[in-house]
Amino acid sequence: MRRIVFVLVAIAAVPGLIAFNVGGIAHAAQEAAPVFVKKIPPGYRDWKVVSVAHEAGDLNDIRAVLGNDIAIKAYREGKLPFPEGAIVGRIAWSYVASEENNKTFGREQSFVAGSPTDAYLQFMVKDSKKYAATGGWGYSSFGKDSQPTDEAAMKSCFPCHQAVKDRDFIFTRYAP
Amino acid sequence: MRRIVFVLVAIAAVPGLIAFNVGGIAHAAQEAAPVFVKKIPPGYRDWKVVSVAHEAGDLNDIRAVLGNDIAIKAYREGKLPFPEGAIVGRIAWSYVASEENNKTFGREQSFVAGSPTDAYLQFMVKDSKKYAATGGWGYSSFGKDSQPTDEAAMKSCFPCHQAVKDRDFIFTRYAP
Q1: Does B45 sit within 8 Å of A52, measured CB to CB?
Q2: Which residues lie closer than 8 Å to B52 by C-beta, 6 or more apart?
Q3: Residue B155 burial (C-beta neighbours within 10 Å; 0-12, 13-18, 19+)
Q4: Is the CB of B111 less than 8 angstroms away from the CB of A64?
Q5: Using a CB-CB distance cutoff of 8 angstroms, which residues of chain B are in contact with residue A105?
Q6: What is the 8-class DSSP label of residue B89?
Q7: Which of A54, A66, A175 sits opposite B111 (nearest CB)?
Q8: Minimal C-alpha gap between B51 and chain A (Å)
Q9: Is the peptide bond before A81 cis (omega within 30 degrees of 0)?
Q10: What average pLDDT does this structure show over A38-49?
Q11: Which residue of A has its CA nearest to B116?
């Protein structure tokens, strides 16, 4: 009876956990399950700029990558890995040709930020213990309605970011 | 003799002033001559994001438009004209395809900020009296060496920004 109660507690603590370790090493199973961030970090829109980018193709967005003070300090000092509490975020807006600007320039050259995209906000939150299963970063994504993206879609975050493991899983470089 | 001294003072105070009002309304001439900003506003790299953009063509840059606290507050409140002391700036980096990102995405889609461009930094500083000749905004531009652009090139700033006089001469809209 004691054993059954323990398993139920583990499931409640880690939503989505597959309890394949019934009666076994439940602690290890807990670490291996990714934990996603479900809350937008407060004040992110006031954060400092890391860099900017344009993703063409299906995404077709223009984006600002921002960092909280801990992240910006680490970026500027070239410090890796990022310290606990660092958060790197990005805001993505639709990539829109600016008729107004083009008219003024006299040519088709200007692309600006339009409305929020379907993957409006994304954040990586550094907490080595809590997010041990995903390289010490908790991943999050929010739509234009500020609601979290469903967990199934979030499972591709970490595998993709492993391409830059040597930069502590962060793609974006600091722009001077 | 008093009259000649006065004209010389006016010339010294406003470089580039054509002293067509010798012996006449020197004050009016002073107001009509644009005054350009020659100093990079301290701390601009810490300012909050107004928006982002990509200028294709000859410029071929990707840019962040930032504002000091006065400018950001006015933007967020939708307040026009911008109050005294507002500064809107933009940083322009070369527009570079990211091989690293493309490799991870599996397609050619990612463009990031490279090195500073020849027109690296530009600012508009609101001071209705000092910059009365150019709509209340002082214009500035700095190259990748952080040196001010020569004044001849600066003369195109205000005529171009007059296209958006109804938005207090500021092209960039606040991105949500």
Answers
A1: no
A2: A52, A62, A63, A64, A93, A112, A113, B62, B63, B64, B65, B175
A3: middle
A4: no
A5: 57
A6: E
A7: A54
A8: 7
A9: yes
A10: 98
A11: A176
Residues of B within 8 A of A171 (CB-CB) are 100-101, 104
Chain B residues whose beta carbon lies within 8 Å of the beta carbon of residue A62: 52-54
Nearest to B55 among A51, A57, A110 (CB): A110
Q: Is the peptide bond before B81 cis (omega within 30 degrees of 0)?
A: yes
| ipTM computed for the complex | 0.82
Residue-wise pLDDT tens digits, B25-60: 444 444 578 999 999 999 999 999 999 999 999 999
Q: 3-state DSSP call for residue B163? A: helix
Instruction: Please report which confidence band the pLDDT of residue B105 belongs to, taking 50, 70 and 90 as the band edges.
Output: confident
How many residue pairs from chains A and B have C-beta atoms closer than 8 A? 119
Short-list B54, B50, B80, CA closest to B65 = B50
Contact between chains at B66 and A49 (C-beta distance less than 8 A): yes
Reduced 3-state DSSP string for chain A: CHHHHHHHHHHHHCCCCCCCCCCCCHHHHHHHCCCECCCCCCCHHHCEEEEEEEECCCCCEEEEEEECHHHHHHHHHCCCCCCCCCEEEEEEEEEEECHHHHHHHCCCCEEEEEEEEEEEEEEEEECCCCCHHHCCEEEEEECCCCCECCHHHHCCHHHHHHHHHHHCCCCCCCCC
Q: Is A2 on the interface with B (CB under 8 A)?
A: no
CA B45 to CA B47: how far, in whole Å? 6
The Cα–Cα gap between A97 and A111 comes to: 4
**Average pLDDT of chain A?**
86
What DSSP state is assigned to residue B176? -
pLDDT at res. B44: 98
Cα separation, A174 vs B13, in Å, equals 40
B21 touching chain A per CB within 8 A: no
Q: Tell me how far apart the alpha carbons of residues B37 and B124 are, in angstroms, rounded to a whole number.
A: 8
